[in-house]
Amino acid sequence: MDQSILDFCEKVIEKWLQKGASYVECRTEERKTFSVKIVDGVIKSLGSGIVSGVGVRILYKGFMFFKSYSLTEASPEKIVFFEPVEKPWMEKVSLVSIKPTIDEVIVEQKKKFEDVSTEEKVSLLLKENRGIIEDPIKTAETVYEELTVDKWIITSEGTKVHMKIPYVYLSHRATARENGRINESRARLGGIGGLELMSAEKLEKVSQRAKARAVEGVRAKRVKPGAYRVLLDGEINHLFAHEAVGHASEADSAKTGSLLRKKLGKRIASPIVDLIDDGRFEINGIKGFGWIPYDDEGVPTEKTYIIKEGVLVSYMTDRATASYFNLKPTGNARAQDFTFPPIVRMRNTYIAASEPEKALSNEELLEALGNGLLLKGGRGGQVEPLTGTFTFGVQEVYLVEKSEIKERLASTSISGNFLEVLNKIRAVGKEFDEPEASVGFCGKGGQSVPVGVSGVWLLVEKLHVGG
To answer: N or C: which end of the chain has fewer CB within 10 A?
Structure first.
């Protein structure tokens, strides 16, 4: 980032303080992107670019205002003299105090994005996409993205944080049709780092996973709808923790009326359950896709316990909601880019054992399951935060009898109320499924941010499957 932009932020902060602001935050970003989309062996889009700019937030007369500028527009005069106009829906806010931080975090790439030519990348992606299309696969879609975010967060309180984080993401969707039936699958691969995350072995593995899920699912017999004793894999652990429980645990949602409003300090889950949102999750050298050492207010991130031993102990907060609820800031203020203000967002969210020494291996969980279903690979769904009801797709279903996996069943759905499910968790695993396979982007407030991660397996006493 050009030094002139940093000088620019310092000038903006100084002039807004002179104008009467009680807090000023200047966030600069340079975002380098490369993306490819392939459908049925044909390149549908290919592009790259660099976007850069500045987002400025000010706390002025008790109200928070935000304005963003591209670098071609940025000048202290234009920013200092924008008129902070109060709107009827705005509320006065206060920010919880934090200790100012000065730090720099640069994530290195063992194999840099630019070390592999566009032609070579596209050739590899075409090969994997075309390798998926084999009867009964009728269509295959491949999306590949690289993103490098170079960001400074500078505040009037003295925080000055520089981060440079590279992301790489690959998604395959495959659709199989046979005997009047249709089954769609997906498989993902990604992480924070360079192209070392996209080895030939991993590329082949993820494309074959998408293919196998689609083919086996379209040929398998359907699950009879009903309540089952189930094992959920790490991907569904993350899906449930993020979508069903996590969004209701975001402090802005709790403030306006989620199911978890006014439940702080109350038992809402089995005592063997912890629910965690970790800004610095890393396992076996792999960072979760939602890894951020500082949020977009410059607050250091941490391993945040939302549920501890079954009790709701915290919400995920930014500085304003932390002040409102009299909680500590958890480092969950995130913005899609410099054109958006930060809002409360998740990072790497999962359920873990409250007593790690009592967590079970996957083999022990199968033994504990006895008879039931093993469910693997989520595929999205919907949640009603006010009532806690949810419906999620499941890609792989396996019948388990006497603790042995017997046969593959067709893709299906699961549904229920997340508070009921939290209280029906009977055992928690200790083996994390690979985080590289559970990467994605979460949408909220018109913004999309990278999130993860996979988790351990969960034994649930009763869950509705099919329908």
So the answer is: C
- Helix, strand, coil in percent for the chain, rounding step 5: 25, 45, 35
Contacts of 432 (CB under 8 A, 6+ apart): 234, 283, 454, 455, 456
Distance CA 60, CA 178 (A): 62
Please write the tens of the pLDDT for every residue from 181-208.
Answer: 999 999 999 999 999 999 999 999 999 9
Q: Is 329 helix (H, G, I), strand (E, B) or coil?
A: coil
Distance CA 143, CA 7 (A): 38
Mean pLDDT in residue range 240-268:
94
Measured CA distances, 425 to 178, 221, 260, 334 (Å): 37, 27, 19, 31
CA distance 346 to 330: 10
Name 409's bridge partners: 397
Give me the count of residues in the chain: 467
Residue 361: other Cβ atoms inside 10 A: 13
Is residue 386 scored above 80 in pLDDT?
yes
- Rounded CA-CA distance 240/225 in Å is 20
Q: 39 exposed, middle or buried (CB, 10 Å; 0-12, 13-18, 19+)?
A: middle
| pLDDT value for 379 | 86
Under 8 Å between Cβ of 331 and 262: no
2 confidence band (pLDDT: 50, 70, 90): low
Q: How far is CA 268 from CA 121, 255, 414, in A?
A: 48, 18, 20
